[in-house]
Amino acid sequence: MNKSAQLTDKQKDVFKFIYKRIKQSQLPPTVREIAAQFGFSSTGTVRDYLHALVEKGYIRVSANKSRAIEIIKENLFQIPILGRVQAGLPTLAVEEIEGYLDLDSLVFSDSNTFALRVRGDSMNGAGIFPDDLVLVKRQAVAQTGEIVVALIRDEATVKYLRKRGRHYFLEPANPQYEPIPVNEDVVLIGKVISVIRKLN
Amino acid sequence: MNKSAQLTDKQKDVFKFIYKRIKQSQLPPTVREIAAQFGFSSTGTVRDYLHALVEKGYIRVSANKSRAIEIIKENLFQIPILGRVQAGLPTLAVEEIEGYLDLDSLVFSDSNTFALRVRGDSMNGAGIFPDDLVLVKRQAVAQTGEIVVALIRDEATVKYLRKRGRHYFLEPANPQYEPIPVNEDVVLIGKVISVIRKLN
DNA sequence: AATGTTACCACCCATAAGTGTGGATGTCAA
DNA sequence: TTGACATCCACACTTATGGGTGGTAACATT
User: Fold this and answer.
1) What is the pLDDT of residues A97-143, one digit of tens each?
2) Are the Cβ atoms of B79 and A135 closer than 8 angstroms?
3) Could you check: is the Cβ of residue B67 within 7 Å of any atom of nucleic acid strand C?
4) H or E stretch at B2
């Protein structure tokens, strides 16, 4: 297991294909499917590639099992988070990489997560704008201070959950709107775990 | 495809097993693995189950392909975007699904995309807060009105690119800060294509 | 000059795995 | 009581699939 082993461009292509297949279709490719993808006429070629990927610690394969390819290194397709950007682009200064944006945790979260398109500007103050997407984790309870999604008579709203005295309120982050008391008309759906805005 | 078809208890067990295997190990089981799991001595039994699950719309199988069992309904790479949320949770009303949040382009984006941790509150007005992550597509030119990342003497800032008269400015979205004229000290790095905020 | 790595090939083989045939038994509703 | 359906079986067949052997060629490193 060569730790510092880097992949060649072609090996990276093969790995990318396998990675994508596993993540997207949940069905790892067979050696022949890989061969077809890249135009290899021999399965032996693919075996060589798989062997290289195993050696370099990117995948694991089980002997004599069809499609038994596991991804070991996940980092490759994560997006580096830069804490600071320096001159000397376009190469990233590795030292500046603060971590990796793990989109897997967003994309491959369980089925209790969904995205909701935001309507209205009642949460402007929290940086949640109309047409933003909020990722919602479905749960029946939430803590005060969290941003939650609640149903008010079949209407979904995104608000802060706050407590005043003994009563709970759904509070907007825009002073133009009024807090809404939590009563039997209000059904908590879940809490907002992420905000995503796509521009352009 | 019988839509209202409900699963029997045993069929549910088989489905659960397949579901778990796909979710957990990323490797769908073979018919013989399913047989082994439930103690069936014939692969034909498994075929009957798979057939039932297909008929009832729970899975999809490809002919003559090993392990080619797909779970229907859930696209793991996409998160459903709900335009409206209705009562009757926890099942999602399919009719309300507005589309799918496609993070594929992010996960497999080329190396010219990176994430930048935002510092300071100069873009509060645009819903970009401190500690937010902005996804940046590296490019040397941008259009006015776009949110860009620029280097000002080795310091990275996120600002609007605006034009006033014949001059370009980097404009904050917070009136407490002053616009910065674009001159030779300013290097455009790229434009912001997405804003991501993780809560909790 | 020797060695190692990468990047391919053809060909073959054993077995893993999906599918087909033809049953058997039991349940439940028409 | 007929028929549809669910739940099993044995056994055979076909195809899919991983792996082996033994090459060739280019290229960089030692």
Assistant:
1) 444 455 544 443 444 666 777 878 888 889 888 878 787 777 778 88
2) yes
3) yes
4) none
Strand C contact with B64 (CB < 7 A): yes
Arithmetic mean of pLDDT, A152-164: 83
Q: What pLDDT sits at residue A42?
A: 93
From residue A117, alpha-carbon distances to A39, A156, B38, B86 in Å are 42, 10, 43, 14
Query: CA B121 to CA B158: how far, in whole Å?
Result: 10
Contact A70 B154 (CB under 8 A): no
Would you say how long chain A is, in residues? 200
Instruction: Look at B137 and A93; give whichever has higher pLDDT.
Output: B137
Q: Which of A62, A107, A113, A191 to mutate to test the interface with B (most CBs of B within 10 A)?
A: A107
Contacts of A157 (CB under 8 A, 6+ apart): A120, A122, A149, A150, A151, A170, A180
Checking DSSP bridges between strand A113-117 and strand B78-82, what pairing results, if any?
parallel
Q: How far, in Å, CA of A112 to CA of A136, rounded?
A: 8
Beta bridge partners of A190: A138, A149
CB contact at 8 A, A83 and B187: no
Count how many residues are written for chain B. Answer: 200
Around B33, how many Cα atoms within 13 Å sit in the side-chain half-sphere?
A: 13
Of A200, A81, A185, A193, the closest CA to residue A139 belongs to A193
The residue written with tokens 């499609």 in the block is: A67
pLDDT tens per residue, range A63-89: 899 999 988 765 444 444 444 443 333
- Residue A192 · residue A143 · CB < 8 Å: no
Residue B181 to residue A60: CA distance in whole angstroms: 53
Give burial (CB, 10 Å; 0-12/13-18/19+) of B67: buried
Q: Does the beta-carbon distance from A27 to B77 stay under 8 Å?
A: no
Cβ A119 vs Cβ A130: under 8 Å: yes
The answer to whether B144 and B162 are in contact (CB under 8 A) is: yes
Contact A158, A116 (CB under 8 A): yes
Based on DSSP, count helices (H) and strands (E) in chain A, helices before strands: 4, 11
